[in-house]
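Our preliminary data section would be incomplete without showing what the modeling component actually yields. Below, a chain of 83 amino acids is followed by its predicted structure, encoded as tokens that our downstream tools consume directly.
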Amino acid sequence: MVEKAVMSQPASRPAPVQRHGRQIAVQVAVQVAVQVAYEDADRVFGVAFRDSRTGDEATIDEARRLMTAYLETYAPKTPRRRR
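Predicted structure:
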């Protein structure tokens, strides 16, 4: 579960969230992404192992593809090298 940060500071000085707002937003986004990935994988693997102790290989492969595709959207963008 992702907890919301409560920031209350006097108006005379900026709150840390104002100076580092992007960093906090990124940290929250990563926490949410990990939680979503975990929940999705848990559900798909539950389906894969519902009828078999060894799991349905096709469903396991799809779970891998699902997690890889989703989590790749959070990977840092790297510039392409010129040849």
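The CA atoms of residues 18 and 71 lie 28 Å apart. The chain is about 60% helix and 0% strand. Preliminary results of this kind motivate Aim 1 of the renewal.
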